[in-house]
Amino acid sequence: MEKDTIAQLIIWHQEDEHEKIVDRIMEIPQSDRDYETVSLLARAMNNLERYDEALQQLLAIAKLGENDPLWHFRVGYSYYYLEQYEEALREFEITNKLDPEDRDTLTLINWSRNNIDRKKKKLDQSASLKDLNVQTTVNEASKVPFGQDNGGASIEYLKDMYRDGYFPNFLVDKVKAELVKVVEFLEQGNQGIEETQAKLDFAIQAINELAEEFDENDSEIETVARESIAQTVGNILAFFGIEIDTEEAIRERDW
């Protein structure tokens, strides 16, 4: 590239006129662009947040840039802002080996490592949440055995909620836990209508209080949940032969 052109590109860079740099270099036939020209083009593209294009330009001259710390820095810069932090860190570490005095490189090494750590934590959190939501089988998750007095009979709790991925399993477990308390109460022989209704009222109020937690996890106690809870309550009442209408049984609901 001619010296006058290079001088103009430097001026445009200092004036943040990166579009002009790209336009001028793109006027040069690709076959006539040397290593320096492509490097300056990639730098301008990075400054314009055209990171994919910058990376393509840099990779096209990878062999020539192998021992150039500036080439590795610019490649790392593209990777960093493409949120490919592992690749960015690799390039910045090579830059640091080739030019240990560059402070910007050290800063970006730290930033890359921090982002890698944050990304890993997010993945670990997502994996943990997924584990909570994984249900090996609907029956295993939704059935809880009654006491031995009833011959080991079991009932399906909240079957449709467990089947629907919209509801986090760990929250469905909390709903189920309140209904299990009702069952435990009934198993103790407390099966009068008034006392049973009072226990159900308490359980439904406790479920109401879970609404905010469902919201925080992008879910809601809505139609499917309401019907699933009502069905489970109806099954419990039927099992113990308690004559309370299901709608009356869940009269304290806010959903």
Characterize this entry briefly.
It contains 15 helices and two strands.
Q: In which order are the strands of the major sheet placed?
A: 1-2
Query: Would you identify the regions where 5 or more consecutive residues have pLDDT less than 50?
Result: 134-140, 145-153
Q: Please report the number of helical segments.
A: 15
Estimated helix fraction: 55-70%
Class by helix and strand content?
mainly alpha
The end-to-end distance, rounded to whole angstroms, is 72 Å
CATH class of the largest domain: Mainly Alpha
Q: What's the order of the H and E elements?
A: HHHHHHHHHEEHHHHHH
Task: Write a structural description.
The protein has 255 residues and is mostly helical. The chain has 2 domains: 3-130, Tetratricopeptide repeat domain (Serine Threonine Protein Phosphatase 5, Tetratricopeptide repeat, Alpha Horseshoe); 138-249, no CATH class. Helix content is 70%, strand content 2%. The protein is built from 15 helices and 2 strands. The protein has helices at residues 3-14, 18-26, 35-47, 51-59, 62-65, 69-81, 85-98, 103-133, 138-142, 159-163, 169-187, 193-208, 211-216, 223-240, 246-249; strands spanning 143-145, 154-156. Strands 1-2 form a two-stranded antiparallel sheet. β1 (143-145) and β2 form a beta hairpin. α3 packs antiparallel against α4 and α6 runs antiparallel to α7. The longest helix is centred in the middle third of the chain and has 31 residues, at 103-133. It is rod-shaped, with a radius of gyration of 32 Å. It starts with a helix and ends in a 6-residue tail after the last helix. 27% of the residues are buried. Residues 134-140 and 145-153 have low confidence and may be disordered.
